[in-house]
Amino acid sequence: MFQLLFTLIFAEMALIVIFVFKTPLRKLVIMGLDRLKRGRGPTVVKTVAGTLFVVMMSSVYNLMSIHRRWMEDGDLNPTDQVLASQHMLEASLMGFSLFLALMIDRLHHYIRELRIRRKTMEAVKKQNQIFEDGKSGGAKEIKILEEEMSGLSAKVKQLESELEAKTKEARNAEANAVALKKQSEGFLLEYDRLLEDNQNLRNQLQSVDRRVSRSDSKKFM
Questions:
Q1: Could you write out the three-class secondary structure of the chain?
Q2: Is the pTM of this model over 0.85?
Q3: pLDDT digits (tens, 9 = 90+) for 20-76
Q4: Contact criterion met (CB below 8 Å) for 92 and 9
Q5: What values do phi and psi take at 9, rounded to 5?
Q6: Angle between helices 139-220 and 78-137 (to 10 degrees)
Q7: In the chain, fewer beta carbons within 10 Å around the N or the C end?
């Protein structure tokens, strides 16, 4: 356990030293950390750090228990002394390793931010240089850009007119759909009325048939 913790601490210290000095090895380390922070890497790192923190808190709790017994009894046996020293060393090493891991993460973040800002500044400088070159002797390029802008503005106007036409078509289609819906509702009402009239006529025919049948029966009697 102690060998693993010491190895981890020395590895973290080596990474911090690599971050401090600008060498090709630092680029490789930064690329490795960039890949580590993608996908499932952050989840794995957080899980390992959480496990290490829990083990550290367990060592601290055991150390506090031994210290409480020492306060109650007033003396510690050699076994408790060895255990107390072991727990103290474990907690110190794990806490120091977590602190170094946090330092590595922050250094990596700051170095990335610095690289991004440098690239942004270089891009701005290149744009300014291009602008100055074009301003000094690039009248043709300015004319070409103006022609491209005029062409783009014409295309924008054409697209706006097409959009207006499509909007009008959509509105007309919507109005036609509403009119057809109202017309279909009128047809349904007319159909219901015709069904009702048909039913009334059938009822009237049935009543007339009954009357005729009754009159015929009276005649025969």
A1: CHHHHHHHHHHHHHHHHHHHCCCHHHHHHHHHHHHHCCCCHHHHHHHHHHHHHHHHHHHHHHHHHHHHHHHHHCCCCHHHHHHHHHHHHHHHHHHHHHHHHHHHHHHHHHHHHHHHHHHHHHHHHHHHHHHHHHHHHCHHHHHHHHHHHHHHHHHHHHHHHHHHHHHHHHHHHHHHHHHHHHHHHHHHHHHHHHHHHHHHHHHHHHHHHHHHHHHHHHHHC
A2: no
A3: 887 888 888 888 887 887 777 778 878 888 888 888 888 888 888 877 777 766 666
A4: no
A5: -65, -45
A6: 100
A7: C
Q: Which amino acid is at 120?
A: T
Tokens of 35: 């890949």
Q: Which two three-digit tokens encode residue 98?
A: 């977590």
Q: From the CA atom positions of the chain, what is the Rg in Å? A: 45
